[in-house]
Amino acid sequence: MQGKSGWEPAAAPYTILDSLPAEFSGPPLWDWHADAAWSYQVTSVGERGDQVEWLADRVRAGVVGRSDGHWAHDLYVSQFRVIDRELTYDAGGDPSVSAAGAIVSYVQRFTITVTPA
Known about the structure:
Strand content: 35-45%
Number of strands: 9
Distance between the termini: 36 Å
Mean pLDDT: 85
Largest sheet: 5 strands, antiparallel
Number of helices: 1
Shape: elongated
């Protein structure tokens, strides 16, 4: 959030989305028949453990949640079809507390796999 004095911190709780470095194998990237997978880290940040666990539950349900055998929420990737979503790391209810004890975080990592549409 940008205010008059420059960048100001967001009010807790909030999430941070980071794209992780990609590793590719298989056909070259210019091959339009190749599948691709990208990994993302979502860090939920709050002032209390229950805040970050609530946010992590919401993120998990939004990305890999299922309903009646289908994904609960569509992910749109231009010119591709999402063929898999995987929760590859979850802090498992063990939030990390900062040294000062004022900030709590909860880390999750997801891999999204796509194929050309």
